[in-house]
Design brief:
With 167 residues, this protein is an alpha+beta fold. The chain contains 5 helices and 4 strands; from the N terminus they run H-E-E-E-E-H-H-H-H. Strands 1-2-3-4 form a 4-stranded antiparallel sheet, with helices on both faces. A hairpin with a 7-residue loop joins strand 2 and strand 3. The chain is globular.
Length: 167
């Protein structure tokens, strides 16, 4: 094991993945590759109190964008809206173009290197998907950020098995 890793990283069965590039969290505070979709929360450009839950389905490349209470995005007319484009761009910063493209099953062997280029390769159309699950994960993510720093196990995450005995 790497000597630079902290003890909990060495014992954890869930690998901590650092971002490929640093990113600002104001526009896209939450992005994940989960449930067969690239999905996340994107801040509204016009209303500070509004957020959009955006997603792109792997393989079919269908997409959705709506507010957290399932009102459709006004810019979603047959092509990915600006929220979806921002989500894809931030996913590329977080995970890298190769990982996002593999997850979405998009061929980028010709040198595609940006989120905008990746978004232009999506051939799917709009498909309504519920926003509640993604928004709930985002809220849970925020709750963990508010916890005080500790080296003790967090009760909710204690079910992750250790890979070796704690000494």
């Amino acid at each position: 094991m790497d000597a630079d890793l902290t003890a909990w990283e060495q014992r954890s069965s869930a690998r901590v993945v650092s971002p490929v590039q640093p990113r600002k969290l104001a526009k896209v505070p939450f992005v994940e590759l989960a449930d067969g979709r690239l999905q996340g929360v994107v801040s509204s450009g016009s209303d500070i109190a509004r957020v959009y839950v955006s997603s792109v389905t792997a393989g079919t490349h269908t997409y959705n964008c709506s507010t957290n209470n399932n009102r459709p995005c006004g810019g979603l007319y047959g092509a990915p809206c600006k929220h979806l484009q921002a989500l894809i761009a931030e996913a590329v910063l977080q995970y890298g173009i190769g990982r996002v493209a593999r997850y979405l099953r998009v061929d980028v062997s010709d040198g595609t290197s940006s989120g905008a280029e990746l978004a232009s390769r999506l051939g799917g159309g709009p498909e309504r998907t519920p926003a509640a699950v993604v928004f709930s994960r985002f809220l849970r993510h925020l709750a963990y950020l508010e916890l005080p720093d500790t080296t003790e196990p967090i009760a909710e995450l204690h079910w992750f098995p250790a890979t070796e005995a704690v000494r």
